[in-house]
Structures are given as structure tokens and as C-alpha cells.
């Protein structure tokens, strides 16, 4: 009875190996084990190549950091500076924001727009690396004449955590 259980466990394990290993040449035990060993060697080679590529990319990134240190400080600031654009087209006010992300930025931006009397009709948001938002808004006719585009831009700029005047 114990021998039957041992053989069943062995056969179950071989069956699992057969389902995991992609290239099994024959279905006998020896072939399954041999093909598994070959597959493991292939995986280890892939891991080695990927680690080498990571090391190369790491040195390339270090080189890129060295290049960015050669740039003037003002040039680096301009590349990473936040962008806030507000423009009116017919009845729409279009808003475009690109800045560093921070927790709660989306909610506070939507609240700021609502406080300014702008109603969002369409909005595209991305938070990959930086916070980016393009929104199409409408505003009441009486609000339209009261608020200029620069005031909207400054309010969004302050909301995003940048003090002072927007660039």
C-alpha cells in the first residue's frame, strides 16, 4: 500500500512537470526529467542575460546622469518645470496641467475648478511618472467675464503646491 502511494505521488509530480515544461520530447520518466533539466538550464541562461542587460542599463543610466550634471542648472529646471495652460475656445475653457504628482492632487484640482465655477465635461488624467490632466470645462456666462485666464492658471498653480507666480 505504501509503495502504491509512493508511485502515485511520483506519477503526479511527473505529470505536473510535464504540464509546466514546454518542450517534452517523450512521455517516459527519463525524457521528462531530461527535458526538465534542459529547460532549467535554458531559464538560468536567460536570467544571466537579463542580469547582464540590467547591469549595462544601469551603467547607461549612470552615464545619462553624468550628462545631465553637465547641463546648466537653468536647463534642467526648464525641463522639469510644471506646465499650466488655460485657454478659451467658443464656450469651452480648456485646461492642461503637467506637474509633479502628490497625494490628493486630482481631488484638490477638481475642487479648485469647481470653486472657480468651472464644470468639467471631459477629462483625461495620467499619473505615470508625473501628474497630467487635460480637461474641457464650461463656465456660466456671468463667471466668464469676471475671471481671466491668468487667474485660473494661478489658482491651479497654487493648488498643485507651487507658491508664488506661475511661470
UniProtKB/TrEMBL annotation:
Cellular localisation: Nucleus
BHLH domain sequence ranges: 1-43
GO BP term, pick one: regulation of primary metabolic process
Annotated SUPFAM superfamilies: HLH, helix-loop-helix DNA-binding domain
InterPro entries: bHLH-TF_ACT-like_plant, bHLH_dom, HLH_DNA-bd_sf, TF_AMS/ICE1/BHLH6-like
Keywords, sorted A to Z: Nucleus, Transcription, Transcription regulation
Superkingdom in the source lineage: Eukaryota
Pfam family, one: bHLH-TF_ACT-like_plant
SMART domains listed in its UniProt record: HLH
Gene3D superfamilies named among the record's database cross-references: Helix-loop-helix DNA-binding domain (4.10.280.10)
Record bears the keyword Transcription: yes
GO cellular component, one term: nucleus
Coiled coil, from the record: none
UniProt cross-references to PANTHER family, sorted A to Z: TRANSCRIPTION FACTOR BHLH61-RELATED (PTHR31945:SF15), TRANSCRIPTION FACTOR SCREAM2-RELATED (PTHR31945)
Protein name, per record: BHLH domain-containing protein
Species this protein is from: Flemingia macrophylla
